[in-house]
Amino acid sequence: MSRYGAVTVPVRGGLLHVGRWSGDPSLAASGTTQVPDPPVLAVHGVTAHHLSWGWLADELPAREVVAPDLRGRGRSRELPGPWGMATHADDLVAVLDALGHERAVLVGHSMGAFVALVTAHRHPDRCAGLVLVDGGPPLPMPPSMSPEEVAEAVIGPSLRRLDMRFEDHEAHRALWRAHPALAGEWGPRMEAYADSDLCGSEPALASRTVREAVDADSRDLLVGADVARAQEVLDTPATLLVAEHGMTGEAPPLYGAEVVADLRRRRPRLRLERLDAVNHYTVVMGVGARAVAASVRTVATR
Hints:
- The chain has helices at 54-59, 85-99, 111-122, 147-162, 169-177, 188-196, 211-223, 225-230, 257-266, 289-300; strands at 4-11, 14-21, 40-43, 65-68, 104-109, 127-133, 198-199, 206-207, 238-243, 270-275.
- The protein is α/β, with parallel strands linked by helices.
- The strands form 2 sheets. It has an 8-stranded mixed β-sheet with strand order 1-2-4-3-5-6-9-10, with helices on both faces. Strands 7-8 form a two-stranded antiparallel ribbon.
- A hairpin with a 6-residue loop joins strand 7 (198-199) and strand 8 (206-207).
- InterPro entries: AB_hydrolase_1, AB_hydrolase_fold, AB_hydrolase_sf.
């Protein structure tokens, strides 16, 4: 029987699509406590969708992994704005309520890390642990650049993909296969992820991600008040995993050496680990998922 299924959860404006990997406690490591493990609530990146967490679910077979398509993405694309980190945070709490979970280990990747951080700040009683993956702390904002220019510099290729049309699924797969960050990681799971991102009909298939949602969320995570207020969460025990390489599979990383050193000085209670030989994508959609799973286990036992 497959671990994976999907449910819908009522939120403002409609239904949020939620992927769910059931956990099998019999697969837990020998000698672990008999107290039920808190589930993982996993939050994807700005142009991604919930299937980016399939790799992590494989690494956590004993634990339930819950991963929504954020509003404006995947099969939640029809949900309306306004968007923003606080809106997504409240949607996550609606997911916990609907599934009957008091608390969960919050795991966020890229923009999802900012959502997880804001969720932990707005709803601390629902957070059983916090793992931020290549996101969460403020990104450097050059004073001469607007939030829109910073977003273009960081995720420009992903933004352009949202405006593209594809004659068939193979054309879309070819775009993903050519992505320099995914060299060596292409396989059936990555292909399923790419296929699931499409909507519409041939020969004009398009990404399910709504560009307006991405623009609004990108601005909010860069200059929004909710993210600024939530930074105090980093003064409590939390884990930040940073990838050695960046969006294209090479330097510069999203969080460079100077930013990491500054975080170590200012946030001494933040457990910060650099993951070698992974990039911004493969830190969750590939070999990096094992290290993310290890961090989940660590924070869940504190």
